[in-house]
Amino acid sequence: MKPLYWNRIQIQDQNNNTLWSSLEEPDIINTQEFEDLFSKATVQPKKKPLSDQYEKKNKTRKLIKLLDGKRSQAVGILISSLHLEMKDIQQAVLTVDHSVVDLETIEALYENRAQPDELEKIRKHYETSKEDEVKLLDKPEQFLYELSQIPDFARRVHCIIFQSVFVDSISSVHRKLEIISAVSKAFLDNDSVKDVIGLILAFGNYMNGGNRTRGQADGFGLEILPKLKDVKSRDNRMSLVDYVVSYYLRNMDKNAGTEKSVFPLPEPQDLFHAAQVKFEDLAKDLRKLKKELTACVKEVEQVCENSSEEHLQPFKDKMESFVSTAQSQYETEDERLQAAQKSFQDMVMYFGLKPKSGEKEVSPNHIFMLWYEFCNDFKSIWNRENKNISKERLKEAQQTVQKITAEKKVETKKTNANSLKERLRKKEAGVSSS
Q1: In this structure, which topology does domain 191-263+357-409 adopt according to CATH?
Q2: 327 or 4: whose pLDDT is higher?
């Protein structure tokens, strides 16, 4: 079925006055119709719902239910939605193969597995009841029992799920560290960034003149950057950012107006993403991954110790390979985190930044959002001005061509005095004069 990504509400106090405390779900829904409407598209052959694979009960005899109502209903809905056979689930778990049973289904199976107290009741029923009584056991109880018969189901599935979680989480950490490292490095290393900052400093010092508190500055607080667009020219047609961009393109970018012109600052979108990074959160994420990876290693060892020879492979090789790769990736990203923090601190010192009032240190959000707003303004003006310069160059080129063409048209060709045409012309001229 297609997932429904809602925020779950759970009622703790049954006496409260909300709708949810008194709401009851209908006992009968047309599951086949519902599945036809809201099931996922699949290229796999249609299989009967897992619930249909259990023996049909004689309605004259009362079913034996060991789960409470809501729990039974939840498990019942799950098995009705699974167009699989139990052997498919077992194969997926034992071989770590998602081709038939996808990861989302495996997660649902893990979340709905029998809890120890439930499993104890169900097993006791199987062990102490007669065959007829076992057959009368309701579908959800049968399903949970069969699921528990898959060797080391909970540990195996937990390892499979963690493998997916780890891959996604470590990739997320990697992307965030990569973006903040790249942006910090750009500010530290790119000469074009220095050129733009130098222009702002020069224009600012000129505007402030001999002011005792603002003039003759050696640098400036980056808080002014987003405000430069509000500093208008006398006729109100141009901002200071407009002027800085125009001056940079026309005096410092030899490729201005061409495809070779390169934006001199970090990309605004990169700055926005870098501003969302919190080093303490990344460190926390990595610590959590390390703790969970250590637990996964132990679970893999326990599964391998408990497993029969028949069910040992390919779980052992696949999981040991994953663990080895994961440990290497963790160490790489942990080192990358230290390097990114150092690069960021170097940049903070480079700009002479001080923490905001009440904060111990400068945060990526503070510095990169200042730059994001400025760079966003700068880039839109830079794109527009580049187009203007390109049009100007094209117009100049067209005028040059027109001038050359016009000069060629009025150019007088020199004649050859010894040519036949010239001799005849002179002869005719002599006859006329006589």
Answers
A1: Methane Monooxygenase Hydroxylase; Chain G, domain 1 (1.20.58)
A2: 327
